[in-house]
Write a structure and sequence with these properties.
The protein is of the alpha/beta class. The chain folds into 2 domains: 67 residues, Phosducin, domain 2 (Orthogonal Bundle); 111 residues, Glutaredoxin, CATH 3.40.30.10. Helix content is 51%, strand content 11%. It contains 8 helices and 5 strands. The protein has a 5-stranded mixed β-sheet with strand order 1-3-2-4-5, with helices on one face. The longest helix is centred in the middle third of the chain and has 44 residues. InterPro entries: Phosducin, Phosducin-like_reg, Phosducin_N_dom_sf, Phosducin_thioredoxin-like_dom, Thioredoxin-like_sf.
Length: 245
């Protein structure tokens, strides 16, 4: 009687999941995947792999096992390769988002070097025609005056670190007002914004150490709030680029 009930139960569940262990569940899932997928939407190569993976194999059929194993290895390789491509795409996407956000936050023109002004007219035009949001720092110097060369070198470094600030330099003799800028007041720094003079510093070298560098000039300008926040490259950006390459 019990054997008949058992046989009846097996017949009732025919066609449903017949494997209960982990391997059996995987086998049933593969079979279900093959049967449930639209045949037209599956590439022939993928359909063959799914069919072979879901079909029982004889223990003595070594050739079939080797073929399945080989196809499984190719599949696994493609999955791993796809994962690496997805990771690289994600990194590129994150880098692009960071660049877009950086551009939105760092609005306005960008410079990055020290402009040499040749005449007084060019000096006035720079002050009057530049955008109102731009800070302009002008170094008035003369060859052979102590501190002028060092300040020019320092401003060149700062120009690359603060590209949103326009750094300029002009010889005192080219300003058209050379009598106002004698060697006694050089080097001089004039700071403009919106066409207005907001700060001026004469004999700047005397307010710094005897041997000063860009960091000293940066600290000096920051004391008066004349520099914006320095642009800092994202720490992982360099590593991301190396990984992508």
């Amino acid at each position: 009687m019990e054997e008949a009930q058992s046989q009846s139960l097996e017949e009732d569940f025919e066609g449903q999941a017949t494997h209960t262990g982990p391997k059996g569940v995987i086998h049933d899932w593969r079979k279900f995947k093959l049967e449930s997928e639209d045949g037209d939407s599956i590439p022939p190569s993928k359909k063959d792999i799914l069919r072979q993976m879901s079909s029982p194999q004889s223990r003595d059929d070594k050739d079939s096992k080797e073929r399945i194993s080989r196809k499984m290895s190719i599949q696994e390789y493609e999955l791993i390769h796809q994962d690496k491509e997805d990771e690289n795409c994600l990194r590129k996407y994150r880098r692009q988002c960071m660049q877009d956000m950086h551009q939105k936050l760092s609005f306005g023109p960008r410079y990055g070097f020290v402009y040499e002004l040749e005449t007084g007219e060019q000096f006035l035009e720079t002050i009057e025609k530049e955008q109102k949001i731009t800070t302009i720092i002008v170094h008035i110097y003369e060859d052979g005056v102590k501190g002028c060369d060092a300040l020019n070198s320092s401003l060149s470094c700062l120009a690359s670190e603060y590209p949103m600030v326009k750094f300029c330099k002009i010889k005192a003799s080219n300003t058209g007002a050379g009598e106002r800028f004698s060697s006694d007041v050089l080097p001089t720094l004039l700071v403009y914004k919106g066409g207005e003079l907001i700060s001026n510093f004469i004999s700047v070298a005397e307010q710094l150490s005897e041997e000063f560098f860009s960091g000293d000039v940066e600290s000096f300008l920051n004391e008066y709030g004349l520099l914006p926040e320095r642009e800092i490259q994202a720490p992982e950006q360099t590593n991301m680029e190396e990984d992508i390459e």
